[in-house]
Amino acid sequence: MENQPSISVTPLGCCSTLIKIDCNGVKCEKNGCSFAEETGPKKQLSDPGDSDLSNVKVEDWVYTLWGWKQVTAILDKHYYPVRIGENNFTYDGKYQVSHIHPSAWIRPPAFFNAPPKPQSKPIFKKGDRVLVRDEKKEKWIRRYFSHYDFEKSSPYCCFKFGRDDWVSNGETNNWKFCKKWEE
User: Is 50 exceeded by the pLDDT of residue 19?
Assistant: First the structure.
């Protein structure tokens, strides 16, 4: 048991570690032995993504720790000028100025295995009349569109019971299929 290697993991920062293996003085004779030397982060972990948000515009897609979100506003003379959903970020993608690592990217790091960027322009806007359903064989139901939620399998959010924003008090349901309501 004395010759068993011991492995220690040292955090280097966000999502990367340095793995140090101590072989207790035993020399490895096999070529390519993973215990023969220190190993660093995998190559794919070295891709930091692109967190420069200085050129984004309203309605551009940005990947955050919460998934793909659209830029909703650019605020002048503000510590966190890029508004994405309900959160604000600095131009270098940080959620807090004191954070070391970014939390928003125009191109996410490779090790995130992020889903593809959603369509660039949404088809529907808040208050649009739409027809929705959850299954292909169901009848279409009339609703008023609220917003998209691309993190769910039913990404189309509409106000409950076919009411508008005012009457439904902002309550929504999610739907799988959605199309324009044409009278």
Answer: no
pLDDT at 28 over 50: yes
Burial classification of residue 99, based on how many CB atoms lie within 10 Å of its CB (0-12 exposed, 13-18 middle, 19 or more buried): middle
Q: What is the 3-state secondary structure (H, E, C) of 128-169?
A: CEEEEECCCCCCCEEEEEEEECCCCCCCEEEEHHHCCHHHHC
Distance CA 78, CA 71 (A): 15
Q: Which pTM was predicted?
A: 0.44
Position 120 scores a pLDDT of: 57
Q: For residue 107, what are its two tokens?
A: 């191109």
81 vs 12 pLDDT, higher one = 81
- CA dist., res. 73 & res. 146, Å (int): 18
Residue 140 near residue 178, CB atoms below 8 Å: no
